[in-house]
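Table 4 source record.
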Amino acid sequence: MSELLKYLFEFCFLVQKTILACLLVLAISVPLSNAYCFFQPLKPETSDGEHAGCRDSKGELHEFDSHWRTDDCHDCSCSRDGIDCCSSFATPAGYDEEKCVSIFNKETCTYKVVEKDDHSKECPVHNWVG
């Protein structure tokens, strides 16, 4: 009987450790995936009675199941439901705004936070959003 209790205790301890590890992974991954997204329903546009694809806000037609990055750094995809887009960048939120300024690079879709008086010196950022 004592062997059975020992086994049950070890099993419960292992389950608790597994649940704790899963919660830790979830707590770490949620802030890393903080992109904002939006959806544009498919407009009723047809070619020969069939939907031709998705037309974006600039009027460009994209084939179904295609993916692209917009000029303003959103990753988009076209489906038969419409266009899904999510930001491909994070915006700095926790830095000294008196001393520093954020600069967005549209080529790399990233922000850099630098001192206002000396752009060669980077500033620490404590929070990123989006």
